[in-house]
Amino acid sequence: MLAEIITIGDEILIGQIVDTNSAWMAQQLNAAGIRVKQISSVSDQKAHIITALNEAQQRADIILITGGLGPTKDDITKTTLAEYFGVGMRRDDDALENVKQIFARYNRPLLEVNLHQADVPANCEVISNKNGTAPGMWFHENSKVFVSMPGVPFEMKYIMDEAVIPKLKAMFQLPYIYHKTILTVGEGESFLAERIADIEDALPAHIKLAYLPKLGSVRLRLSGYGDNEAQLTKEVNDQANRIIERVSNVIAADDDIALEKAILDKMAAQQLTLSVAESCTGGYLSHLFTQHAGSSQVFLGGTVSYSDELKKSILGVQEETLWQHGAVSRETVNEMLNGALLNFKSDYAIAVTGIAGPGGGTPEKPVGTVWIAVGNATGKLIKTYSFGNKRTQNIERTATAALGMLNTLLADVNK
Amino acid sequence: MLAEIITIGDEILIGQIVDTNSAWMAQQLNAAGIRVKQISSVSDQKAHIITALNEAQQRADIILITGGLGPTKDDITKTTLAEYFGVGMRRDDDALENVKQIFARYNRPLLEVNLHQADVPANCEVISNKNGTAPGMWFHENSKVFVSMPGVPFEMKYIMDEAVIPKLKAMFQLPYIYHKTILTVGEGESFLAERIADIEDALPAHIKLAYLPKLGSVRLRLSGYGDNEAQLTKEVNDQANRIIERVSNVIAADDDIALEKAILDKMAAQQLTLSVAESCTGGYLSHLFTQHAGSSQVFLGGTVSYSDELKKSILGVQEETLWQHGAVSRETVNEMLNGALLNFKSDYAIAVTGIAGPGGGTPEKPVGTVWIAVGNATGKLIKTYSFGNKRTQNIERTATAALGMLNTLLADVNK
Predict the structure, then answer these.
(1) Which tens digit of pLDDT belongs to each residue from A33-56?
(2) CA A380/CA B54 separation, integer angstroms
(3) Using a CB-CB distance cutoff of 8 angstroms, which residues of chain B are in contact with residue A305?
(4) Per-residue pLDDT tens for A237-253?
(5) Distance from CA of A166 to the nearest CA of B (A)
(6) What is the set of domains in chain B, with CATH numbers?
């Protein structure tokens, strides 16, 4: 079963936004056993959209379209789809009710232009969009499925998860695909590959292994293709367990979850609490934890002590330590860790300090120099890293390294 | 002058990587006066690549192709291009020398498979790639330009900057395109559209206005197309100024920058400092500020006081306030703000507290209830919002709302 994705909107074609929707949609489709043949980004022009629809439906069975559904004049997807299918427009009662409810909830006056959000091509089935005023639209024409969705990522994702993927699964006889993901941290892709080379070489043809590296952590994804769900699941899980046993020292989770979520889960199970003292990561570590529901059970909070003053006043770092060793040093990060454990009264803490760049580097401590400490009342790990000269990467790599260190410490404690 | 971008490779189609190359290339092309008509991601299959080339050259004058130039068997771009143009392959001396130098530099043995990196279609002009073994290739056939480049971002960017853009500028008489973006916060897309409807309707045909909304902020982008650079720039800026004057109360920047960067820039210009007391945003606000280089000039840091204990110990929120009004209340956020200003010694502070969800809601304070305070020694704004039941959105919307309130307060102070 083949699909194509068409994204509509000039903002992608002028490079103002990066199209992250398509990769997410491709992941969901692949997981459901549907291959993506082509992804096309086209302009907000009727003739161009129609050409793209014609080309896509010649190659694929399912055409997913995002974008161009806003209330303003440059949004022409709906009228173009109506023209493409040779139908008129109708005002959909459910979509209208949804628009009214959303405006009522936010206490905003409902303008005429907003009512048009409920207008859809006459031949579509409306898919409810609880997160926005633009409805999703499902068309079944000439044995092909066309779905039009808003380009706003969380609206598109809701419609995909709640309606599009389930409807496609119900409609088509899709092959069974079972994915099992193992999350590792602290070892590079090629080293992992060496350690499990014999397991990988001995995999049966219908099970594939992919390495998905991302800034210091590597996901190993086993994908099995077959018809017998129970047998395939067991086969893939057996292979996964062989890998987990082999590289157990770098395993963070035997599931496709975020690294920080794996840590939150482990700590929650042991009723442990965590606090942070962040400098160069500037709140990013806290944000990683707190984006997850239920994180408050483990994560108490902490400080973003970007200035030396706050390192002293909130964490109790000594003036003399900063003066003698500098803010980016083993001594400072150690005092930051101790300050967090003492003041924030958590079981474990993470402290980071470093030079994210692009300014602030010196010959001895170039941009990318980072010190990280993790620990509890009885044990700690302190390490330094050199991450290079890109600010965003330095922040992300520092966070991943800190999470990896905490993962190691928690594993050692439980041995 | 129209261009199309074709990216070749299954890793985009299975959603393993997000295509960031195309947005970057589109930016460079637009800045050079070349409009991008379509961006297509296609699979590593000869027939599919040839179809994509045929479709693109019917719509555009310039076709830029990335990917599929590696040494492994699934990389077939070069032989496909040779077939497309009906020519054979030749080994290029300069490209071969480059491959040899790169292998010598890294002390790696040169395998036969690596020599093939210097093989190119006979009709191409080779573009040197100093960052990798795959050469860029420039084709001029049937009055169309085709350029093939590696998909590795820093190799592609080098070839674009050093060769492709300069060659295109030398070859074509390019129109001038001027984009001007206005960043607004605090008013929805349709309300903005109503307020400036007459300005939009009166725009000349060669100037277009686009609305780019994102969780509480809306970018207004004017794009002008013409030949006379000075005149066009003035025309677009005049239109932008009319819009800015009309909706001045919601303007954050007259430039295409992030909202928090606009605030950092304004505060840096006035040598003002900022701290935060975050609860439900959990470090996200701090992260927004600190991702920007130079933020430490303004942003001192603050606390992620996720637990009630930390609200008391770090910010000095009163036990009685929490007990009587709850952690999510006007009284608590007010004390958080006062605590931040007092303890972190910044000119301005932001305090947020709310129920991000999915747990923690009550009938009186459902998930999505948020209190935000921004202020300095002499003035403050305190507001409550109801953002709904999605955790990630609640965090992002709260941050945007807080930034909008600070933007308003800074504007009022400067009146």
Answers:
(1) 899 999 999 998 999 999 999 999
(2) 61
(3) 301
(4) 999 999 999 999 999 99
(5) 19
(6) 2-171 (3.40.980.10), 176-253 (3.30.70.2860), 259-413 (3.90.950.20)
